[in-house]
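no rush on this but wanted to send it before i forget. theres a chain ive been looking at and ive put its sequence and its fold in token form underneath. please have a look and point out which stretches look like helix strand or loop to you. thanks a lot i owe you, the record is right below:
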Amino acid sequence: MDNGFMDFISNYLDLIFHVDQFLTAWVQSHGELTYGLLFLIIFIETGLVFMPFLPGDSLLFIIGALCSAELLSPVPSLLVCLSAAILGDQLNYTIGRNFGKHLLHPPFSRWIKLQALQRSEVFFEKWGSLAIILARFMPFVRTFAPFVAGISKMNRMTFTAFNAIGGMIWVIGVGLMGYLLGEIPWVKSHIQAVVLILILGPGLLAIWGMLKSQGNRRP
């Protein structure tokens, strides 16, 4: 297998499961350029329907912890993450509204996880507009919810309002949790376990909720 591809996979897994080490090293090496990296990661994860596998909750938690340790500045970090989260969802909604039905067919459909899309559709049907807020805390669903909203032609003003509210609750909530807990000795010494919980926990809850919903629908 190509060495370049293997290096990419290795770097990606390092980012996902060691986001604290990755981000700390990046801050120390690149300084204020880190804010550009943060914007890019969050914007891509929320804005491109075929990129739902980038870190979200764990990244925000680590950003909060680094702000608490004074490696990052709280205000710029907050503004960067908020703008990326809101603008990313707006882009995703726009893509779904204008091109969504075309992207569900070959050759584009190979890049979209149809099972995750179906979970998002079920979630959206159950919760309506509120799904835009709730989905912020659910990996994969977070990326597909605005896309589904666009496909279903949800009113843009309604989507924008729920998008902004959801983005603020998500960024401030998870980031503040990292800020307050990140410097606690036990959390610092078990940060890898915390990151793993933030990666797997919401996803497992989403799967459990979907299975429960499907079970309730059966006669």
About this structure: The chain has a mean pLDDT of 77. The first helix runs from residue 3 to 17. The two ends are 49 Å apart (CA to CA). Residues 105 and 145 are 19 Å apart (CA to CA).
